[in-house]
Amino acid sequence: MWTGVISRGIAVAVVTAIVSYLTARALASRARVAYDGHLILQYPIAFRIFGPVACSLLLLLLAFLTRMVSVNPETFYSVPLIAAVDLGMGCLLIYGMFEFPVVRLDVSSEGVMSRSPWRGRRFIHWTDIASVSFKIGPQWVEIRAKDGTAIRANLCLSGIHELYLELKRRVPRTAWKDRYAPFEPRANHSQYDV
What we know:
Blueprint: H1 2-28, E1 32-33, E2 39-42, H2 45-71, H3 78-102, E3 104-107, E4 111-116, E5 120-125, E6 129-135, E7 140-145, E8 150-154, H4 160-170
Helix pairs in contact: 2-3
């Protein structure tokens, strides 16, 4: 019994270490500069290539494991529980298959344009930005326009720090919330207070 718990704990620790490493690399990575001078923020190449492949393989593994467990359920409640877990995991894996290769931000002198499989294309002009905040749970910077349009930039996007510097340069201090997280130490946040 303890070997199963220990092996799962090791697997969780390894996955956490890999994701932490990739996120740290993304925070340190730079945006790609397009031919017209725009900054292009995308997930790093490792995310764009291996993300969909890993999600596809995990989805197949999940289907295989579900089939194995459903053949001989231990209790009456195990089948609905397995179905619920599989549905949740399946949704996350399908999300990953489309999120990593498609999401892109284009930062230009006019504003920020976002492309995602979930919300299509959205553009916010620099003068239309009503608020910029950092959301701790999903780990993204949210740029909200006066009309309610929102663009969310995940911390794993290459060049996220450059986006932060551009926002800091172009957006008034009154529009900022949580300016220091995660780009600047908390001790320095007083210089941005309104």
